[in-house]
Sequence to fold (342 residues):
Amino acid sequence: MSKSDRKFNVAIAGATGAVGGAMLDVLARRNFPLKELRLLASERSVGKKLTFKGEEIPVQLLTKEAFDSIDVALFSAGAERSLEFGPAAAAAGAIVVDNSSGFRMNPEVPLVVPEVNGHAIEQYKKCGIIANPNCSTIQMLVALKPIHDAARIKRIVVSTYQAVSGTGTKAIDELREQVAAYVNGSACSSNVYPHQIAFNCLPHIDSFLDNGYTKEEMKMVNETRKIFADDSIGITATAVRVPVIYGHSESINIETEKKLTAAEVKKLMESAPGVKLVDDPANLSYPMAVDCAGKFETLVGRIREDESIENGINLWVVADNILKGAALNAVQIAEELIKSHI
Ligand code: 25A
Ligand code: L14
Fold:
């Protein structure tokens, strides 16, 4: 059989969640060469059927024994489940692509954005696991990689405007219910987030750490350094939840070693893999969350020189957090695995 005719057995752990559902869509949209697609979730979903390319597939229980004959296992059922079941899946011979934060900073585990450090994938051999970075980090680095290569980024100051879908399906429901309650003049109840999210912004994503930052903010710092393989880069982040369903937006300010003009950065973005330049303010064109939903590209615009320093640039970067931020990036890693490694 020629290499291009091969088909693979893929499992999705967390198939009924927001990211798991998107993994099914992305596998279908990109025509991933599948032999078997095995859908795994908790007790709650066993027996439920999900549709893939018109075919109904029943959901099975996620157990350590569920990975027999699986080539690639895509995990998105939370860090606890990944830590519990990921190593068993790898031991059974599957290559695990894990979307949780469970293994990202493990030095044995590569942390991969294919457009940025695809070469790191081969380090999966150490323990059979590849980590998918945090959604906010992925889209930031897709945009910054060509700039870093051209002019070396010394420092990044980033503020995020993150959609509720990152927290999963229950957070999407909470925003919808609060909007409806608010519009009807009734009281909003909050169960997923500590405060009302409808018509509000919460400067709080994931838990607070001793240094005053949130875990989400520190993921952007630590994961950027690991993916760029550059510990000297300075990064400071503020992560904010906004009442948007799909699409994270980011205001990014960078300082580079070498001077780049705004025109030069626009040029870099025009040929950057995975990027779509959307930057025509005269015609009211700039990246927006509502436009990125369902798309594979990272939208970049509002490119300006920071006039307060010698070598500074501002950008506005938007991507579908469930696609490029999670499901698409994981499937791209799987595609690279079957193309060059297995
Ligand atoms: O905090 P954690 O544990 O790290 O998890 C973070 C959550 O964020 C999502 C995902 O939520 C995850 O649970 N997520 C993870 N990584 C993400 C990323 N990078 C991410 N979101 C964005 N970007 P989710 O609700 O979208 O998906 C959850 C999936 O995980 C399965 N799962 C949960 N516990 C499991 C398990 N699978 C196996 N064993 C377990 N012990 C979950 O399957 C789903 O596929 P499910 O069967 O439990 O859920 C089916 C439906 O039920 C809803 N639901 C979830 N939790 C509850 C619930 N309903 C009632 N009560 C609950 N406590 C789900 O929304 C789903 O529709
Ligand atoms: O992948 O938006 O580390 O609530 C955990 C928090 C994903 C997003 C991760 C959120 C994130 C999630």
Summary: The pocket of 25A (ligand 1) is lined by residues 14-20, 41-42, 44-45, 62, 76-81, 99-100, 135, 166-170, 326 (CB under 6 Å). The chain has a mean pLDDT of 97. The first helix runs from residue 18 to 29.
